[in-house]
Amino acid sequence: MLTEASVRAKGRPRSCIADASIDTAALELFADEGFERFSIEAVAARAGVSKATIYRRFANRDELLAHAMRKFDEDVQQAPSDGDFWDVLTQLLDEIREASPDSLRSRIMIRVLSEGSRHPQLQEMVAERVIRPRHLRLSAYLERGVSQGQLRGDLDIEATIALLVGPMVWLKMLRLTPADGSASTASIVEVLRLGLAPASHL
């Protein structure tokens, strides 16, 4: 016999599947078509759900896309607490550089770079969901390096992040790899280490 509780329980998996389908469709649509062609109707068609299903969850397309982008928050893992400091730093930077240019996150970032000036809310959304979590992780790791004596005590954390991340983004956007003769991430970190580490660690 089906009770009200059992009907709700049976409905939950379908709801979870719909949620995942909507999130995936929203991210892929934005990456493929851009913000100006991003709509509730187009997401519904791609996800295979009704517009009503989406409107029960979100009031507008901005709210929908912001919710879908929470996935990038969930992807961020804390930096390892053990291992060689410089090796771990290289791994963190490699995550930025080695993500495939054709990956969903990379395609979304390209869209933001090309359309963000026309849609400030889009820039804010991506900064909060994609960039800020990774910025905080790297900042915390560098602060740990300062406290452990691996980095100079007077280190400017924000300037250091710019110096570390800038080359990774540049090489990634140009699709340059060590196989093409470009510098490896480890070699870039080694060059910067000369200015970041205290004299006793050189």
TrEMBL record:
Please list the residue ranges annotated as the HTH tetR-type domain. Answer: 16-76
Instruction: Enumerate the Pfam families for this protein.
Output: TetR_C_11, TetR_N
Q: Which UniProt keywords apply?
A: DNA-binding, Transcription, Transcription regulation
- The residues that cross the membrane are none
SUPFAM superfamilies (alphabetical): Homeodomain-like (SSF46689), Tetracyclin repressor-like, C-terminal domain (SSF48498)
Provide a Gene Ontology MF annotation, just one: transcription cis-regulatory region binding
Protein name per UniProt? Unannotated protein
Source organism per UniProt = freshwater metagenome
